[in-house]
Design goal:
binds adenosine-5'-diphosphate; single chain; alpha/beta; eight-stranded mixed β-sheet; two-stranded antiparallel ribbon; 274 residues
Amino acid sequence: MSGCSGNCESCSSNCGSKENGSLIEPTGAFNNIKHIIAVVSGKGGVGKSMVTSMLAVQMSRKGYKVGILDADITGPSIPKAFGIKEKALQNELGILPAETKTGIKVISVNMMLETPDSPVIWRGPVIAGLVKQFWQEVVWGDLDYLFIDCPPGTGDVPLTVFQIIPLDGTVVVTSPQDLVSMIVKKALNMANMMNIPVLGLIENMSYVKCPDCGKEFSVFGGGSDAISKESGIPILAKMPIDTELAKQVDMGVIELFEGDYLEEAAARIENSEK
Ligand code: ADP
């Protein structure tokens, strides 16, 4: 679906979306977004926002124009990782995203709340409506990659993202616990049922490395290898628990993190998208 603006009316392609009664919505006429990747997880806390941020940073380091749409409305973590404190502004074209220190464009509900710790106590349809607004009314301009940080699970909001945004693919983040492995299959099955390609799995919190002897310990055992084998979906990366990384996220300077855990994953996403 690369290059799809979501506007079937003015499109000459016969991709099937028209006949299938597609619910895809067009983004703003001022936007030109080449590739759209949703980052999803079966459950919360596995590091989905961390992976979204790191993939965006990797793509930006390659020289691409990158944006992040934070669709995790009730648990927005993207602004914190990048140290974004300003509020979203608006002009006659629409809502203006914030720009990180290295030029990644970001929109998140936290840029609209009075204080970052204000809870979002909204019902599903209202939250889904805001995601739709982020897609349609944010002035992204020209982007090579838009990453969407989806809320965990298979509820209302991930469904909205899958239905209205012309995704090129999803990346599924998991941690190697049995429980998470079981739940991640739901996310994989959802993408399959919606005909959205799963580009790969990223296993986060895969191991810890002893700072003294360098030995690697698997804290939770395994899990993703079995899922990958069973589903045929490749593992794009295995990322350790890294205290330095956690510290830099907490300080809002993820762009300064020098670890290359997702370098290969970003290269594989780049190649799968050409
Ligand atoms: P999710 O989006 O899946 O809910 P987050 O990306 O917000 O999860 O991560 C949850 C917490 O775990 C955050 O504080 C984050 O900084 C930390 N974290 C995630 N992955 C790692 C990692 N590989 N090493 C250290 N801390 C991590």
